[in-house]
Amino acid sequence: MRLQAVEPRRLYRQIADQIRSLIGNGEVAPGARLPAERDLARQLGVSRPSLREALIALEVEGLLDVRVGSGIYVARPGARRNGTELADAHGPFEVIRARWLIEGECAALAARHATPAQLRAIREAQARMVDETRRNPNPLDADRAFHVRLAEASGNSALVLVVQTLWDQRIGPLYQALERKLDAPALVAETLDEHQAIVDAVAEGDARAARAAARRHMDMARNRCSKEWRKQ
After folding, report:
1. pLDDT-derived band of residue 30, with 50, 70 and 90 as boundaries?
2. Beta bridge partners of 64
3. Cβ-based burial of 6 (10 A; exposed 0-12, middle 13-18, buried ≥19)
4. Would you say residue 89 has pLDDT above 70?
5. What pTM value is reported for the model?
6. Residue 213 and residue 132 share a domain
7. Domain ends where: 50, 79, 108?
8. Phi, psi of 116 (to 5 degrees)
9. What DSSP letter does each residue of 121-140 carry, written as one string?
10. I need a labelling partner for 161 at 20 to 30 A (CA). Which of 34, 39, 64, 209 fits?
11. Residue of 78, 82, 91, 108 whose CA lies nearest to 50
12. Tens digits of per-residue pLDDT, 199-218?
């Protein structure tokens, strides 16, 4: 199987296109196991996060079957489900990086400018997350509400719009396909602790600590999304 190096500046779609072509041209047989993620990334000359996004995209489209702890397989024609149209969906790691930049500043501004009512709204959103995780380890609506309330407390309506837009990608097919491979119940406690650290820093009016707590939350989210893939 011959692969060509992909320029680092290109997005996951270009990586996916090359692998899709190999499948379409019959160079990789249905049911075949692809090389390990580390080897694929090296052959393509790309980062592992970019490769992961491409593999997830191809799985969502129904061309690959990514089995955590087993490997990456080409889906057999008879077993392929109807693929989801991804259009210009952003990759999960790209979204996490954008959130790292934006939400860190939202938290810092919230620490400086949050009104008592806004701080109360943030705390209520966190309490809602704690409550909902008892029934659902990944309560997206409550999670979204927390981050939007935090952005609102920044005092900048444009930042609120950016956070909401990023969340449209957060609940998109690529991000959701990636999260389905994680052990969500095992991650609940640490996720809630990360949110609580943000709340505490904002309540104390400590902009530096709030920014650091929000960015650490995004760093940990990236690590969680990466951890399962290291089994490949």
Report:
1. confident
2. 74
3. buried
4. no
5. 0.76
6. yes
7. 79
8. -55, -40
9. HHHHHHHHHHHHTTT-SS-H
10. 209
11. 91
12. 999 999 999 999 999 999 99
